[in-house]
Amino acid sequence: MDKLVTIRQACVADAEPMGDMLVPTWLAAHKGQMPEHLWEKRQREWTPAVSARGWRETLEEMAEEGTNGRLTKKAPPSPKPFINYLRTFLREIGD
Predict the structure, then answer these.
(1) CB–CB of 11/63 below 8 Å?
(2) Model confidence over 40-95: pLDDT tens digits?
(3) Where are the alpha helices (DSSP H) in the chain?
(4) pTM exceeds 0.70 for this model
(5) Which residue stretches of 5-47 are H helix?
(6) How far is residue 48's CA from residue 17's CA, in Å, rounded to a whole number?
(7) 9/53 Cα distance (integer angstroms)
(8) Strand, coil or helix: what is 7?
(9) CB 57 within 8 A of CB 29
């Protein structure tokens, strides 16, 4: 029997599972692709709960705007903690 996959628009209730999935997969995929001390910092500071909070804010904003899943103020959706991490990372590798 074939299994079908349904793709739907994410909703606010999906924020926690998104954080639970995204953080460990990102960390696994990017280990060894940056200086180890920065990867370790990312691992300490970017938890599933932090990611979920960022996704929740983004998904709530999308729902409030009624944009049918399209962000009108920022694209792609980037949780604020990740942006702060990137700024720090770029400063540190620039030294």
Answers:
(1) yes
(2) 999 999 999 999 999 998 888 888 877 655 555 444 455 566 667 667 767 776 65
(3) 15-30, 36-45, 48-65, 80-94
(4) no
(5) 15-30, 36-45
(6) 9
(7) 18
(8) coil
(9) no
